[in-house]
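To fix ideas, we close by showing one paired sequence and structure record:
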Amino acid sequence: MKANNILIVDDELSMREFLSIFLEREGYIVKTAENAEVALTLLNKSKFDLVISDVNMPGLDGIALLERIKKEFPDTAVLMVTAFSTTEQAVEAMKHGAYDYISKPFKVEEIKILVKNAIEKQKLVRENSALKQQVVQNNSFSGIVAKSEKMQNIFNIISKVAGTLSNILIYGESGTGKELVAKAIHFNSSRKERPFVPVNCGAIPETLMESEFFGYVKGAFTGAVSDKPGFFEQAEGGTLFLDEIGELPLLLQTKLLRVIQERELRRIGGKEIKKIDVRIVAATNRDLEAQVAEGAFREDLFFRLNVVSINIPNLSERPEDIPLLVDYFYTKFSGNKTAANIIDKDALKILMNYRFPGNVRELENIIERALVLGSGEITVDSLPDKLITGKTKAPVSGSDINIPPEGVLLEDYLNDIERRFLLKSLEISGGKKKKAAELLGMTFRSFRYRLEKFGLDAGEDE
């Protein structure tokens, strides 16, 4: 790992030497300057992650140096040091952008922690700045593709909250990309080298929830043949993503709240209390505030989770993202990164006007289907029938279906029904296949395919 560069600015030789020796032992690369003018010369020659500057120096003082650094070298963090601490100086330093303020004499451990935290924070600021620039250039953010103003605002929120420890609550309908947003938060944070553990709260049987979340020890219950860590322990040091948090029963909500508050847990059947360091990112497609009002969701848990909320819009609210997503999914499924004119204008128009009840996930399925059935280019004929006709299938009831005692060959039965529908539609349309296809809510291409399947006349339309 590359060592961080630190510049120490102090008119006292003893302080420069002390800090230099101490910080070099901690693995930093250190340079010193006896005044602000020398410091600015060094800053113009080399890149520094952190400047530790005295406030009271002859000539240009520390506050003036701080102002110059924030203006000319904004990526450099500044830690102010003085032997004459006053509240006014502290406020002045923080107002001009200092990371923090420490008074002489200080404890070695205190300066050690401040230096470490200042460098880590500045690193996150730089990474977020680079990510924002990437968003502007590529209309993408950690695997999320979008150029709409609503999604750009979400990218900016992610950039701001990723470097914090705050719990996040993501709202969005099914298919909008809640897990992608959660991953973007995790992988742009200082926890990115630690686990990201996704949990679908709605998919766990209620009887298993406690053991899955908190783990258990050997012999805790029948079938517990060995110790098992729960979701919290699996996510230690990283992020626990609780999808569909609104599905949790009240009893587990109570236990979950305690773990989040106390930052500790005990496995089922165990005696040891385990400290945990986990960030919670939760998501839901429900109105949790309404659930709180109804008594179905704990208010205190809601406030613990909802420190920062992110609302993901439906795809129908941001149609300008559809062409970008079409390109993205086309590349994903075809492997062709240089294709031009991958979708004709009529097919794109249909997609732009479609409501997408399944959101981005539905669009992904549509593009994959079109590539599987088509010849490479996405055309109107390669889109699902419901997008073109606007018709949906009629509901099916089993109340009027009779199966004879000897049984029935379902495939033959369905083929016979399909064949009769084809013939009837041709009869009604006077043999005009395009009209017959419209009557059955399918494309002309699909209609011809079905005619060929049954050996019926599939020639050109009359």
About this structure: The radius of gyration is 31 Å. The chain is about 45% helix and 10% strand. The first helix runs from residue 13 to 25. The mean pLDDT is 85.
